[in-house]
């Protein structure tokens, strides 16, 4: 599989995840349980969502000045 094909699959999965959600949930439950058993009780506890395969939404920078407005105004 070419790299561009793999990137297409990754982007598609981020928009429309395929596979069984219940399997991911069950695996996350087991992972969360094991993490809770083996964690330090003095530290902050993890949540079940920490073990789910969600892609974090990247924050897009607002009002980025790339200089194009000034360039076009002074053409």
Structure overview:
This is Minor tail T domain-containing protein. Residues 2-73 form the Minor tail T domain. It comes from Conservatibacter flavescens. InterPro entries: Phage_tail_T. This protein is an all-alpha fold. It has a domain at 19-51. The protein is 49% helix and 0% strand. The chain contains 3 helices and no strands. 0% of the residues are buried.
User: How many H/I helical runs?
Assistant: 3
Described by the principal axes of the CA atoms, the overall outline is elongated
Q: Low-confidence parts lasting 5 or more residues at pLDDT below 50?
A: none
Q: What integer value in Å does the Rg equal?
A: 21 Å
How much of the polypeptide forms β-strand, as a percent range?
under 5%
The H-and-E topology, N to C, reads as HHH
Tell me how many strands there are. Answer: 0
Oligomer: single chain
- The residue-averaged pLDDT reads 82
Q: What kind of sheet is the major sheet?
A: none
Straight-line N-to-C gap: 46 Å
State the helicity in percent bands: 40-55%
- Summing up helix and strand content along with how strands pair, one would put the structural category as mainly alpha
Domain Minor tail T: 2-73
Protein name: Minor tail T domain-containing protein
InterPro entries: Phage_tail_T
